[in-house]
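User: Structure tokens for both sequences below?

Assistant:
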Amino acid sequence: MSARVKPLMWAVAALCLGGCASTQVALSVKSPPGTNLGRPMYMLVRKVDTKQYANEAYSEVAARVGAPDQTVLQTAVIYPGTIQRFQVKTPKEGPVAVSFLFTAPDGNWQVLLSPPMPSAVDIELTVSRILSDSIPPAIPSEMPELPEAPKAPEAPKAPGA
């Protein structure tokens, strides 16, 4: 290999390693039969800023389904009684909101995914809200230390034993 080709190959390899890899999150949405009173609804995945996410009204988010802007990463119709899986390409920086547009939301209707992005997220819905989400920490050291269970006291010994 010539001395001129080697540096070019290293430059191409460095470029691909830094910019060719796409960041994706696998979303799994479990929607029991009674979700949204049995009616289909929209899911909206979008790039947000934390302040925007905290202060944004449901109606502002819902408006983006019909008129998506550059922050919208994906929209999908969620059908009750299904488990649906999606691969969403995420931005290199910043958090992502996953919003569910229930007909009559009652409680948590969206979840925030903060960097570093998890590789997979499981979301379970109920009639009118998000029941649970399972977002594994991206780094094992982020997991809180759980206290050790207390030792059970020794049972009293029977007399004459």
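Moving on to the next sequence.
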Amino acid sequence: MSDRLTRDQAWAQLCAWTESDALRRHARAVEVAMRAAARRYGGADADEEEWGIAGLLHDADYEKWPEEHPKRIVAWLRERGEEAIAHAVSAHYTKWGVSYDSPLDKALLACDELTGLIMAACYVRPEGVATLKAKSVLKKFKDKSFAAGVDRDECRAGVELLGVELREHVEFLIEALRPHAAELGIEGSGAAV
């Protein structure tokens, strides 16, 4: 159907509601992770564009309306007939108790917080994501004071829903993010300029 939400429209909406570069980078990183997740976890009929847009928009209303998150972006998606994405975004907000009905729903939960933790780990490394290993991320995962805003329980719940080990999923996300290091600002402080 030709009136589906496009990636350009999704990006425009994100930018309209999100001014912070850090939050835009997070949204882009989760988009990258979700596109890779569509190929890995989605099965033959997974719609990579749909998965990517879910990652891109999952926190689109957070900066402007944190107390209403994700109500506004879910409503915006439903107005456009994007029910699968709206459901996944609703489910990623675990306080709502929305069921995880599809691989898309499960993957968004598994990719969101963990991507944030991986990016935080990259920021404190001179080589950024270039030489990052799962072992290093898992060490940071255990340190509750590191990236304290990352909900470790949501990370665990997401990988359990996907039926994978935490280490395996961390490795997968690192590999997905690595080619986008410069764009995401995770190339490290020691990277060539």
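User: Anything stand out in the second?

Assistant: The chain has a mean pLDDT of 94.
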